[in-house]
Amino acid sequence: MGCDRNCGLIAGAVIGAVLAVFGGVLMPVGDMIIEKTIQKEAVLEEGTIAFENWVKTGTEVYRQFWIFDVQNPEEVVVNSSSIKVKQRGPYTYRVRYLPKDNITQDPQTHTVSFVQPNGAIFERSLSVGPENDNVTVLNLAVAAAPHLYPNSFVQGILNGLIKRSKSSMFQTRTVKEFLWGYTDPFLSLVPYPISTTVGVFYPYNNTADGVFKVYNGRDNISKVAIIDTYKGKKNLSYWPSYCDMINGTDAASFPPFIEKTRVLQFFSSDICRSIYAVFGSEVNLKGIPVYRFVLPAKAFASPLQNPDNHCFCTEKVISMNCTLYGVLDIGKCKEGKPVYISLPHFLHASPEISQVIEGLHPNEEEHRTYLDVEPITGFTLQFAKRLQVNILVKPAKKIDALKRLKHNYLVPILWLNETGTIGDEKAEMFRNKVTGKINMLGMVEMVLLGVGVVMFVAFMISYCACKSKKVK
Questions:
Q1: What is the reported pLDDT for 34?
Q2: Nearest to residue 239, comparing CAs of 277, 272, 276?
Q3: What is the per-residue pLDDT for 9?
Q4: Quick check: 143 and 336 in contact, CB under 8 A?
Q5: Residue 59: closest CA among 417, 384, 421, 371
Q6: For a designed S-S bond to 338, which of 52, 147, 152, 327 qualifies (C-beta 3.0 to 4.6 A apart)?
Q7: Would you say 165 and 186 are in contact if contact means Cβ atoms under 8 Å apart?
Q8: What is d(CA 56, CA 417) in angstroms, rounded to the nearest whole number?
């Protein structure tokens, strides 16, 4: 009987040890299975989860606009007063709803090229008012004229056309006209062929930024979705080559197995450059653990604060010889128009930039840009891209509408918030296909290891107690 009991205790201990060992062995094996599965499904080829979500996002993406309505246009034109603005919005449009087009795989270079068609559908239920709301805004054509035509003689001719068209520094337009395009009365009088349609985002519908070529990850998963080539309609050639403009992904996804120490590089055609985000916090998004990466203030810092930005300072006057921070001159990729990009309400910008603008209230929580990335797959499951469009207006002695200005104005036009969050159905699928299986495998590993250790320890204690009694 004693022998049977001892044998049973030893057998139990052996079983516990086996379970513990099996659980310990299963851990690296399980990790390897997860890694192999992710590497397979993250490749941008037909039949993978990544490709399915990459071609047409399962996330509804909205672009909200807040337009800066000018409250004192006459005071500014006559007395060169500070510009008082009041933001109007949001006016919301659904975007990124069209699937990628002209998708072409290149098996030799392991790349895939595509275009992303643009389209915008107004969402009245998500907007503060209809598209025909009127706003008082900067006259885009008049403001750009002295920059595009610096010659005094030419400006004198343009001044006559501006006066004949009864145009001024500011104008009243509907939201739809201002965003997507209107026929400008001043440009319509120009006696040689030019485009007479003006709008902050004109043209947009039925266009594409250009042809992207990205690595599909077949030969090296750490390169998946990273941009290899961008042939866009916007001219990037003015940037010095050492700026490495095309760097990172398009931010829809990143190479898998992301760590918190990683810097996520991505290219944005809106600002004509690559930029980056750093880890901010852990977030639970619809039951899916994600890492929130945020655009740091350092990304828009002056070259004095961040030497990496030295090649993005392309003008010396407004930036005070590259000492100011928080704005980026992108005029040369906007056909010479005096366009500057910043964070909304000049968040993280030099105070001098907004000295002549009243009504701005920068807020970190409301105006920052962030990406919520699932770290194992590298998929971006939620994001908020926030940018402000500004136009530089300079005094122009030959143009009556601008001749009384006493200093330069960097006029905020609007700011946008482009957001997307994984839908409930896609989130459930993601949990079932990815995080659920990973969690289940991890749970099995821990249960086997835990039960094995407990069994081994319990049976060994019982065996030792039994043996000590027998000795007595």
A1: 62
A2: 272
A3: 46
A4: no
A5: 421
A6: 147
A7: yes
A8: 21
Phi, psi of 178 (to 5 degrees): -65, -40
Which pLDDT does position 467 carry in this prediction? 55
- What is the pLDDT at residue 449? 45
Structural contact between residues 352 and 324, judged by C-beta atoms closer than 8 angstroms: yes
- What pLDDT does 356 receive? 95
Instruction: Give the burial class of 166: count Cβ atoms within 10 A of its Cβ; 0-12 exposed, 13-18 middle, 19 or more buried.
Output: exposed
C-beta separation of 164 from 187 below 8 A: no
CB 9 within 8 A of CB 16: no
Residue corresponding to tokens 């699928």: 429
- For residue 420 the two structure tokens come to 């997307």
| Stretches in the chain below the pLDDT threshold 70 | 1-35, 233-245, 312, 435-472
Query: What is the per-residue pLDDT for 77?
Result: 96
Question: Is the pTM here over 0.70, yes or no?
Answer: yes
- Whether residue 180 contacts residue 205, with contact meaning beta carbons closer than 8 Å, is answered with yes
> Any bridge partners for residue 292, and if so which?
281, 372
